[in-house]
Amino acid sequence: MSIRLAALAGATFTSGLMAGLFFAYACSVMPGLAATDARTLVGTMQSINRKILNGWFLAAFLGAPVLTALAVALHLGDGPVLAWSVAALLAHLVMFGVTMRINVPLNNQLDAAGPVDRIGDLAAVRERFEGRWVRWNLVRTAASVAAFGALVGAVLAD
C-alpha cells in the first residue's frame, strides 16, 4: 500500500469516527439528556466532558484533519482526489473551529460551575449551556459528515 493511499484511508477512517461521534450526540445523547432534569444533564455532561479527553478521542479528533491535510499534500496534481480531499479538509476546519471556539468553551463553563451538589441554580447553568451547545454540535456534525463523505468520494476517485 502506498503512503498516499494509507493517508487517504486513515483520513477517511478517523473522519468516519468523528462524524459518528458527533452524530451520536445529535441524535441520541443530547435528545436523551433533554428529557431529563437539570441535575442529570449538568452532571452527565460534566462527566462526559472529563472522560472524553483521552488518547482514543484525541487520536481521531486530531488525526482526522491532520491525515486529511497529509492526503491533500500527497495528492497535489491528482485532480479529482485532490478536489475531494480539499473539500474534506475545509469541512474539518469548520468542525475544528466550532469545537474549539464554541463547544469546548461551553464545556469549560459547565465544568467551572462546580459539582452539581454545590450549584445553586442548576436550571440557569443548563440554560446557558444546552441550547447553544446542541445548535453548534449540529454544525460540527454536518461538517464532519461532509468531510467523511468527501473523503469517501476521494477514495472512490483514487
TrEMBL record:
InterPro entries: Anthrone_oxy
Keywords: Membrane, Transmembrane, Transmembrane helix
Pfam families: Anthrone_oxy
Ranges annotated as spanning the membrane: 6-34, 55-76, 82-100, 138-157
The protein, known as: DUF1772 domain-containing protein
PROSITE patterns: PROKAR_LIPOPROTEIN (PS51257)
